[in-house]
Amino acid sequence: MITIRNARQSDIGFIYDSICILEEKQLDKVRFEQILEFNLSNPVYIYLVAEDDRKPAGLLTCHAQQLLHHSNWVYEIQEMFVLPEYRSKGVGAMLVKELESRLADKDFDVLEVASNVMRTQAHAFYERHGFIHTSKKLVKKK
User: Does residue 138 lie in a domain region?
Assistant: First the structure.
């Protein structure tokens, strides 16, 4: 049975591996651990892990910030990853539903998500869960 819980620092191995797969590159693990520790301690960030019999199956991270152009809080899904063997089995939907449940009593303007243009299956997933395409994100690398 799948359950959703808060992520913990002890999830570092699963979270690191998941994000490296998602980003298709190896990240600096020492720096990654430092950032994870910082993010887990931030009260406006929500980090969720889906488990199947205490085995991690999926991950969702969400950050919040107060933006002038919304004149309110904005929550944004930063990363979501589900292990291949758990895809199309409702795990991603459970993660999004749990996030929405945790946000239900919060005062905010929107819940956003940005997804790489190549991830068309992810776009379809988010659209099925009520997200609509409203803008185009442009990135300039350092």
Answer: no
